[in-house]
Write a structure and sequence with these properties.
Length: 211
């Protein structure tokens, strides 16, 4: 990518993408529509001990088609968001959901039960903007133009996105497996829409793996 192209792309993201990260109508998802995916106890213990984290209760194992990703959460900076994410994870909400919006050099977004970016779990969260920087591997909540409109959709940054700082709630950081996030299929449609998108195979609280 040339310097001029990169400059143009960054300008485009600052002007348009940063304000369109959520666009969710937060339609409720019926409990019957959630997917639950289990693993054997032997496999779970092996996975758990393969990924040492600071706090297993506040760390997630994200399984993607290319491998496992560990996300360590920030309950001290975004307590309500972390609590809600864990609640949804433990309900199996994210299993099978699509990365419906993926922009190369920017971020991969997921968490819509319809795979379109138009839905959520039905519970909006009050913003918990904090001082954490949107760096490579940062996990942050998507929202509409309204600050307190985040629900279940979140995104993972491919690169530094400092223009998002203080405008979106950062609640976690990828600490292992970022190369698998990099392999998520990019979008080629309007606003980063992905045709035949990659999916979350499963998302699990690491403390739960050997239960």
């Amino acid at each position: 990518m040339t310097k001029e192209t990169k400059k143009s792309e960054t300008k485009l993201l600052k002007n348009t993408e940063a304000k369109k990260l959520g666009k969710s109508t937060t339609k409720s998802l019926k409990s019957a529509a959630t997917k639950k995916l289990g693993v054997s106890k032997t496999r779970a213990k092996k996975i758990k001990h393969s990924y040492p984290v600071k706090d297993a209760e506040n760390a997630l194992l994200l399984k993607l088609k290319d491998g496992d990703v560990v996300i360590e959460m920030f309950p001290e900076d975004a307590p309500n968001h972390v609590a809600r994410i864990k609640e949804l994870v433990r309900a199996g909400f994210y299993n099978g959901l699509k990365f419906h919006r993926v922009i190369d050099g920017f971020m991969a977004q997921t968490g819509c039960p319809y795979g379109t970016g138009t839905g959520g779990s039905g519970k909006k969260l009050k913003a918990e903007f904090n001082r954490n920087h949107h760096a490579r591997g940062t996990v942050s909540m998507a929202r509409s133009m309204l600050p307190d409109s985040a629900d279940s959709q979140f995104f993972i940054c491919f690169n530094d996105c400092d223009w998002l700082d203080g405008q979106y709630t950062v609640w976690g950081q990828v600490t292992s497996g970022m190369e698998h996030v990099d392999a998520i299929k990019r979008g080629d449609g309007p606003n980063g829409a992905v045709s035949n998108p990659d999916e979350i195979i499963s998302l699990t609280v690491i403390a739960d793996l050997d239960k």
